[in-house]
Amino acid sequence: MTDLALIDELMTLVEPGKVLTDAASLDAYGKDWTKHFAPAPSAIVFPKSIEQVQAIVRWANQHKVALVPSGGRTGLSAAAVAANGEVVVAFDYMNQILDFNEFDRSVVCQPGVITQQLQDFAEAKGLYYPVDFASAGSSQIGGNIGTNAGGIKVIRYGMTRNWVAGLKVVTGKGDVLELNKDLIKNATGYDLRQLFIGAEGTLGFVVEATMRLDRAPNNLTAMVLGTPDFDSIMPVLHAFRARLDLTAFEFFSDKALAKIMGRGDVPAPFATDCPFYVLLEFEASNEEVANDALATFEHCVEQGWVLDGVMSQSEQQLQNLWKLREFISETISHWTPYKNDISVTVSKVPAFLKDIDAIVADNYPDFEVVWYGHIGDGNLHLNILKPQNLSKDEFFAKCATVNKWVFETVEKYNGSISAEHGVGMTKRDYLTYSRSPVEIEYMKAVKAAFDPNGIMNPGKIFAVE
Ligand code: 2HG
Ligand code: ZN
């Protein structure tokens, strides 16, 4: 734990009342949405300016105190968990939108800006911030950048990385760097901005981000389609992609739908029961596009890939169809799921799915397995639900054994053990399934350059040595 005298010194670096050490705050700010580690930070500090962040980092270097960044704490890999007496640096009071430029279509955000705040701001300007996911109401831009957040529109718009025009960071040495200065074209050597995106706070803290916006989409329209089996999902993707620019292509299993129906507040898409469902979305900018979508749907039915389907006819119906997919993670969190967030290239999805499905069927015969995810970009979320009669530790231990085979399969297909949730602490021991030992040595050398004292979110991505 950090010495009390040091915490007193920390208090002098920020405004009065902006260091908390009470038990409730330590518990709340010491964890994210994972349930693997008990929170145990020493203090929570709330800087209000870049200068204060810099002072905190310099103080931490001087006294070798570990810092953990904290945004909306909606993460699913324990990257924002402080389980070892660290000081949590929370960006809740650096939550302003500082500037907007209509010609650059850019917004300067402090790291604590909530994702939805940026989405709403863009909408008010007649524009669009396209990175979206279920936790957009509480996740913060700084955290999104730290994990290179993905979500439900990646198939069309890519990950958070694509929307970061420039960053101001405080490095682990306490230096302030202005990275890329919001330029579209810039060929002046290493793009250090990219290193900080997805670094999970291990190199330094993002203290300001210029985010790009896009044109607002035109008449977004969703279809939910029921398929007879796993194998039909990818042909449906290819058929629709051949004729339409999709903004989303998601899937979920009957088990996921059953959990959503169990809530009682979301209407069923249609009466036919199907083993799998696809949710796809496109801009129905004119009648021709909508007709193309319907013709493709009919083609898929004729081919036997689709059993039933529905298309949204209003904004309300669009929202209701999205609830079928977006509410899954929160709804099943009640069953303390063991999570996987794996990806392969789209062309490999069918063979990969077959292999993973076989492992799951062989090894989890008694567990409830819930499949869903962003299958259109190759990202699958596999969630195993904890049976009531098993303790959390017994259950996670059993899943960890099976998980080895899942990750071996990911490696075999040159996939990623974390498509969008990040490595944090939950996946750091498995990093070698996606990154070679030599590559990891280079990654550690990068960390050492930005954070020589190892104070920035230690133990995340790789273990402390
Ligand atoms: C989603 O796609 C989120 O809903 C959460 O990435 C996935 O809970 C999960 O496994
Ligand atoms: Zn996801």
TrEMBL record:
It catalyses: (R)-2-hydroxyglutarate + A = 2-oxoglutarate + AH2. The keyword Ribosomal protein does not apply. Its cofactor is FAD. Keywords: FAD, Flavoprotein, Metal-binding, Oxidoreductase, Zinc. Signal peptide: none annotated. Residues 37-216 form the FAD-binding PCMH-type domain. Belongs to the FAD-binding oxidoreductase/transferase type 4 family. Homodimer. This is D-2-hydroxyglutarate dehydrogenase.
